[in-house]
Design goal:
Layout lengths: L2 E6 L7 H14 L3 E6 L5 H9 L3 E3 L1 H14 L1
Parallel strand pairs: 1-2, 2-3
Helix pairs in contact: 1-2
Length: about 70
């Protein structure tokens, strides 16, 4: 599986641009999956765009959930 990942370290919500870049990169790199990761949150329009293009969004809250799962497995 080839996956395109865009990571954003922001204080404000991540908007459409990051999602658009991942959508474009999927075609360019012939990837099968796209993910945008941020320590912050996403705007409602970015969420809508991601859903329309099957892009996975990982926000700060989800990162904390993943960290907890990893730590619990140690």
């Amino acid at each position: 599986i080839k996956c395109v990942i865009q990571a954003k370290f922001y204080n404000n919500p991540v908007g459409n641009k990051a999602v658009q870049e991942v959508v474009a990169s999927i075609g360019m790199y012939k990837a099968s999956k796209g993910i945008v990761v941020t320590n912050s949150t996403f705007t409602s329009s970015a969420i809508e765009l991601a859903q329309a293009n099957n892009i996975e969004l990982v926000d700060g809250e989800k990162i904390e959930e993943y960290k907890k799962i990893i730590i619990d497995k140690m």
